[in-house]
Design brief:
single chain; five-stranded antiparallel beta sheet; 1 helix
Amino acid sequence: MSWQELYLRKQLLEKKLSLKTVNGTLLSVDGTKGVMVSGAKIVTADVKASNGIIHVIDKVLLP
């Protein structure tokens, strides 16, 4: 799946995905126990932005 696809939190629940970022890095998404992105918990989901949707996480992810 690519970064051009938008994902609402409810679409991530109960799934495990690998998503490619703009710079080509892969992020692991685990929606089996809440939603975690590469070990970071989503604390605010589905924030509308001018270029898509963002999810606020509790960690900084570095490439």
